[in-house]
Each structure stands twice: as C-alpha cells, then as structure tokens.
Amino acid sequence: MTSHAQAQARTILEMAGATPQATRLADAVLLIVDAQREYVDGALPLAGIAEALAVGGELLARARAAGTPVVHVLQRGAGALFNPSSEGFQPAAPLLPQAGETVIEKTLANSFAQTDLQQVLAATARTKLIVIGFMTHNCVSSTVRAAKEKGYACTVVAPATATRDLPDGRGGTLAAATVQAACLVGLSDTMAKIVWNAAEIIE
C-alpha cells in the first residue's frame, strides 16, 4: 500500500513552481559524457551499456540531422583506467565523434573542471544541454550539477546513461539499477529534467 507521504512526494522544483520541461534539439547542445570503451569491454563494464549506447546513438543521429551542436567529453586517465594509449580510452560506437564536432578531454569527474567546455558552450549561444553518457552517479551527475551552477538548463536522457554495481559500505553490494535510479531521481529534485524515454526529446 502506498503511504500518504509517498503519494504526496514532490521535487523541490515542483514545490517552487519551476518544473523543467524536456529540451528540444533545436534549442540545445548535445553533451556526450565519457562514452568510452572502458565501460564496454574494458575494466569498468556497466549494466545495460549496450542498450544505453544504442539509445544514445539514435539520439545522436537525430541531433546531427537537426543541426544540434554536439560536444564529446572523454575521460583521460593517468593510470590503467582510461589510459590514452589503451583501447579503453577510445570512444565507443555508435557515439563516435565526427569531423566538426568538438572533443574535450578531462581528468576530473566534472566536465567543466580544468577544461574549455564553458567556452565551447558559450560559442554556441545555447544555454540548454541534453546530457547522455557514463557513469550516471559520477561524471554525468558531477557535470549536470556544475552546469546548473553555471546557469545551464539540463535534460538528462535516462536510457542513454548507465552505471555499475557499487559496494554499499557495509560489506554488501548496491545493484546498478538502484544506483542508477537514486542518482537520476536525486538530480530531478533540483538539478535537471530527467526523461525516461528518448522519444520525449523532440526536434
């Protein structure tokens, strides 16, 4: 049975009367965070990665057809993970950059930190972002939170994101599906519009 408290649950954005709407491709920049092979066939395989890449690939094709600016962010590691000399660093198909699309390398979770992402976005004169990529709980979340602080309105396409099982800190494991849901719902409270079906993104 659903409790009264659960039935009445609302986000802070809803309480403030500022419920965000899904951004249209015509108004946005498509920001692809860390779509790299480390998450596919490398050391950090993610739950549902094949499905997320497929959804992201379809959205990327639609963005290109609509003339939406596309920015690819790649994690550059100094150790074994995301090492630029390894296959894990390479972009993952079908989210491969094309000529004319910006590619930014980062070393921290937040895609704005110590990069020129802010300048790249400013040059588009667009203040709305559609965000996809990996991992949901880490670099996607960190980037969306930073974008919000910089005045960008973010829409996160949930089925084009993914994460992995994590230790729960008590000797157990928190399933990837739980981590994914909690992170996305947390972002929806004050940070972003979350769409659960990529079809909600229209041209």
Strand content: 15-25%
H/E element order: HHEHEEHEHEEEHE
CATH fold-level label: Rossmann fold
Q: What is the CATH superfamily classification? A: Isochorismatase-like
Helix/strand-derived category reads: alpha/beta
- Tally of helical runs: 6
Architecture (CATH level 2) name: 3-Layer(aba) Sandwich
Describe the main β-sheet briefly.
Answer: 6 strands, parallel
Shape: globular
Strand order of the largest sheet: 3-2-1-4-5-8
CATH top level class name? Alpha Beta
Instruction: Tell me the helix content.
Output: 25-40%
Number of domains: 1
Overview of this structure, please?
It is a single chain. It is globular, with a radius of gyration of 17 Å. The longest helix is centred in the N-terminal third of the chain and has 18 residues, at 49-66. The chain has one domain (26-196): Rossmann fold (3-Layer(aba) Sandwich). The chain has a 6-stranded parallel β-sheet with strand order 3-2-1-4-5-8. Strands 6-7 form a two-stranded antiparallel ribbon. The protein is of the alpha/beta class and 203 residues long. It is built from 6 helices and 8 strands.
